[in-house]
Amino acid sequence: MKKKSELSRSPDATTVRSTHRHRWAVLAVAIALVAAGAVFLARHHGGGNAGPSASTHQRARGGGFNPFGGPPGAGNELAVGVAAATQGDIPITLSALGTVTSLATVTVKSQISGYLTALPFQEGQVVKKGDLLAQVDPRPYEVQLAQYQGQLERDQALLDNARRDLKRYQQLGKQDSISQQTVDTALATVHQYEGTVRTDQAQVDAQKLNLAYCRIVSLVDGRVGLRQVDVGNYVTPSDTDGIVVVTQMDPISVVFTLPEDDLRKLNKRLAAGAKLAVTAYDRAGSEVLAQGELATVDNQIDTSTGTVKLRAMFHNPAGELFPNQFVNIVLHLDTLTGAVVVPNEAVQNGAPGDYVYRVKDDGTVSLVKVTTGASADGRTAILSGLQAGDRVVVDGADHLTDGARVPIPGDKPGDKPAEGKPAGTTATQASAS
């Protein structure tokens, strides 16, 4: 035990532990130096010579958030973009998600029982109302029709004879040559045969109808789906799957929902007799599939969702809309005419509410609270706070404060940049006084 204790305290074991501690210390120092170098490079080379961009503010020269205190970008030049407020029309729209719904989806079934002898259609074919889709063997029904027609002719002959007998009996009865009972019996026989003839005629008509049902035709214009049965199978009216499904494709509808809060302004437009245009976009909302019109509004609100259903109608000759397809719907409710509009990027939101940075003629910016209206095509209507021609910051606004100086190279007071083309500027923060 004494030797083990002395060995554990030997100089060699102590040296090994010291070496491990030294290596860990060197590694920690190296990591700290690399991190410090990365921070140094990011602070002194961040942004480089990047120009103004309407989609990012990381490319601003200098400035930005100052981790060591002071206002953002204090004393440094920032890259910002400026655009002029213009006057124009902004469509007022309502957006929704919708499902393409066919106006007629018909499961083609046989109304009689029999063997299929023909299916003269191609899957996916476009058919018209009345086009032949299937043929049932008509021979059993032709035989039955001939039998009923024979019964009808026989009973008709009996009826004719009974009527002649009745006429003779009535004449003899007037001469008191026969009893009244005989006359009454002859009359009853005529009525009996008349009923039999009517029954026979009904059977003949029913059999003719069955023969017509042997030709199964499309009841609507539409597109044929996949067939559910093949030639040679025995079909009956009770078959649940039917023979094929025909779906109407043109015109076609889209069912969508809107919040009940939008119902009042929608009904106001409809009461005024407005025809409201509806645009259907693809799932991504980037491609227009069809232009249509609002057809109807449902008569009740779904209490579980607080929404109301609407149906829009579309012409669909090219088949861009497909039943059960998911689409984005834009309902064009109205148009805001002569509004002051700015790019969407100009409108900021914060503690003051909605606001913009307006560039004044003295080269400084002022924070202006605005009331926004409808937005469309990358533009927002400003209902109050700005006038057409006012210049607003559209890029780099998050680096500015009220009163920041914005010298615009080559720009004279009163000049306005072209609409939709932000001008690159450099802004120097005004020193606090």
Record the SSE blueprint.
Elements: H1 2-8, H2 11-45, E1 77-84, E2 86-101, E3 105-108, E4 114-118, E5 126-127, E6 132-136, H3 139-174, H4 180-213, E7 215-217, E8 222-224, E9 234-235, E10 244-247, E11 252-259, H5 263-271, E12 277-281, E13 288-302, E14 307-314, E15 326-343, E16 348-350, E17 353-359, E18 365-369, E19 371-376, E20 379-384, E21 391-395, E22 423-428
Helix pairs in contact: 3-4
How many β-strand runs? 22
- What percentage of the residues does DSSP assign to strands (E)? 25-35%
Q: Largest beta sheet, briefly? A: 6 strands, antiparallel
Structural class: alpha+beta
Sequence of secondary-structure elements: HHEEEEEEHHEEEEEHEEEEEEEEEEE
Low-confidence stretches: 1-17, 43-77, 412-433
Taken together, the total number of domains comes to: 4
CATH 2nd-level architecture of the largest domain: Beta Barrel
How many helices? 5
CATH superfamily of the largest domain: RNA polymerase II/Efflux pump adaptor protein, barrel-sandwich hybrid domain
> What distance lies between the first and last C-alpha atoms, to the nearest angstrom?
80 Å
Give the overall pLDDT as a whole number: 82
Cα gyration radius (Å): 44 Å
Q: Percent of residues in helical segments? A: 25-40%
CATH topology of the largest domain: OB fold (Dihydrolipoamide Acetyltransferase, E2P)
What shape does the CA trace take?
elongated
Q: In CATH's first tier, which class of the largest domain applies?
A: Mainly Beta
